[in-house]
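Project outcomes to date are best conveyed with an example. Our students and postdoctoral researchers have been running inverse folding experiments weekly, and each run begins with a structure described purely in tokens. The record below, which covers 471 residues, was selected by the lab manager from last quarter's runs and is presented without edits.
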């Protein structure tokens, strides 16, 4: 039996950060990993997807500037794009990250970990042997999520793609159907269309990116259509059938044929087989936590959960943030050090509730932080949405001919601070952190008026937003 101060289940970006912070706080830490150290993000999500998208964005930007446009004469080199993607996915080998774990002073235990009652984890190695780990202070569940695929007739035999295949495929399908209208669906439709696939996007609802400001999904839909994607709304897939190289989807409107079909229909927490029942929790459900990361359904304060698995914000940067905060909390509690649990204190992940930033790497990019107008209203705030056409900003018109984009600031009228900001347009991803700082710091609009954006940059939209607000 091995004893550590802390046992972390899952070495994705969240588990790695949590373990490192707890170790920096003085704890001995074992990290259990069943697949690749680095998690979904490194091999089947953020890194390979952005590596697929970046060449498309670079090419599209050049074609929007007269003079540069003429120099872009051919399509993307798909083989080169896939090879660059492979490198960003470290060729699906985790030696580099495993070395980092060792260099950070953490103990890596390979195998599938399961809770086995209070502060006990049983790890099943690939050869079937078992190793029991006990934790003197805490166990942190950082097992992430898996793709959620609907249970449709025929789907089990149709070799459908999930986000894993969509980010790691070795060849460009001639025809790709994508089911879903969320972030994975629109990013992967963008990437594979740019690589040459004929893409049909089947969306159950009435708009893309339904969790963001409505104009974001509308602008992305327009652009996908302009690029040749067949975007269909109000379509539900009821059946899937594969016959050799062709997969047929049955919908209410008829059938759609493709060579591959991606189901980008959300995520499910990776908790079905981690022994949650042995500690009184329900397998398959997210592990709900308070702002210090402690599981609310388990007495004794020894179980924590961070990252995708707790369902607070399914984003790498937010999981890493929780990892930093909760790792320090675990170390502080173990050492008897006082916590600071007031909002925005060092022992709480307050930003999860008010200021989650996200970039959707479509063309145009969508960059958003905090609350949408409707979310702010529903939360009881008296708010105003301040909108501005990004194409009217000098820096944007220099950036691209016929620049199309829009910005929205959601202002709390009682306190005159920002509750949320959304930018849609080429090159806006790098503007987002300015908005995140303003939302987190609750900078008054009166003071933001004095934050002068450099001319002529796209950031000048900040000035235009405040001019519009002041009238
Ligand atoms: C296609 C796609 C693109 C994305 N792009 C972005 C992006 O651009 N930016 C962004 O911020 N987010 C993005 N995300 C979301 C991001 O991937 C996740 O938020 C992030 O990976 C969560 O990190 P995590 O450490 O919580 O979980 P994961 O990355 O899922 O890691 C969990 C780890 O736990 C291991 N594990 C699970 N169960 C066990 C067990 N029982 N025993 C041992 N180990 C176990 C897994 O093998 C895995 O290594 C994307 C997601 C997808 C699907
Ligand atoms: N750039 C980024 O930051 C990035 C990129 C990709 C993913 N992610 C994160 O990963 C998470 C997962 O993304 P996702 O796109 O898989 O999930 P999502 O929840 O964003 O979107 C899933 C969509 O599928 C639809 N859907 C669900 N079941 C369906 C069905 N049976 N038929 C048709 N449609 C169905 C839902 O209505 C929803 O719109 C998200 O939280 C996202 O933020 C982030």
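After processing, the design step wrote out the following sequence:
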């Amino acid at each position: 039996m091995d004893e550590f101060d802390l046992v972390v289940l899952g070495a994705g970006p969240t588990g790695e950060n949590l373990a490192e912070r707890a170790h920096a706080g003085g704890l001995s830490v074992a990290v259990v990993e069943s697949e690749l150290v680095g998690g979904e993000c490194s091999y089947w999500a953020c890194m390979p997807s952005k590596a697929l998208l970046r060449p498309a964005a670079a090419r599209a930007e050049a074609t929007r500037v007269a003079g540069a446009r003429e120099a872009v004469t051919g399509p993307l080199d798909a083989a080169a794009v896939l090879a660059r993607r492979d490198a960003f996915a470290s060729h699906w080998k985790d030696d580099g990250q495993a070395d980092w774990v060792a260099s950070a002073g953490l103990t890596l235990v390979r195998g599938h970990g399961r809770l086995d009652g209070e502060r006990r984890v049983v790890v099943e190695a690939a050869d079937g042997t078992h190793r029991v780990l006990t934790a003197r202070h805490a166990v942190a569940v950082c097992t992430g999520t898996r793709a959620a695929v609907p249970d449709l007739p025929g789907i089990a035999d149709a070799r459908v793609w999930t986000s894993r295949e969509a980010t790691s495929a070795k060849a460009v399908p001639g025809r790709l159907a994508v089911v879903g209208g969320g972030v994975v669906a629109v990013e992967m439709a963008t990437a594979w269309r740019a690589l040459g696939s004929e893409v049909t996007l089947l969306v159950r609802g009435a708009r893309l990116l339904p969790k963001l400001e409505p104009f974001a999904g509308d602008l992305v839909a327009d652009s996908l259509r302009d690029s040749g994607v067949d975007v269909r709304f109000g379509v539900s897939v009821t059946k899937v059938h594969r016959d050799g190289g062709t997969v047929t989807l049955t919908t209410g409107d008829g059938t759609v044929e493709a060579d591959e079909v991606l189901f980008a229909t959300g995520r499910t927490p990776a908790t079905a087989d981690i022994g949650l029942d042995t500690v009184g929790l329900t397998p398959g459900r997210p592990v709900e936590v308070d702002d210090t990361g402690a599981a609310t359904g388990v007495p004794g304060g020894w179980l924590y959960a961070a990252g995708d698995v707790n369902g607070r914000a399914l984003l790498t940067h937010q999981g890493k943030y929780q990892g930093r905060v909760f790792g320090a909390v675990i170390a502080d509690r173990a050492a008897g050090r006082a916590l600071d649990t007031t909002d925005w204190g060092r022992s709480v992940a307050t930003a999860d509730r008010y200021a989650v930033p996200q970039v959707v790497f479509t063309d145009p990019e969508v960059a958003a932080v905090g609350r949408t107008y409707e979310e702010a209203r529903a939360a009881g705030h008296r708010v105003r949405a301040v909108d501005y056409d990004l194409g009217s900003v000098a820096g944007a018109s220099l950036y691209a001919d016929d620049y199309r984009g829009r910005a929205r600031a959601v202002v709390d009228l009682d306190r005159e601070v920002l509750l949320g900001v959304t930018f849609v347009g080429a090159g806006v991803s790098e503007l987002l952190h300015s908005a995140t700082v303003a939302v987190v710091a609750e900078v008054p609009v009166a003071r933001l008026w004095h934050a002068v954006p450099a001319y002529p940059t796209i950031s000048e939209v900040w000035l235009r937003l405040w001019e519009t607000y002041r009238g």
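Residues 9-15, 32-35, 39-41, 45-46, 49-50, 112-113, 142-145, 163, 167, 184, 270, 274, 307-308, 314-317, 319 surround flavin-adenine dinucleotide (ligand 1) (CB under 6 Å). The chain has three domains: 2-38+94-146+268-353, 155-265, 364-470. The training component of this project remains on track.
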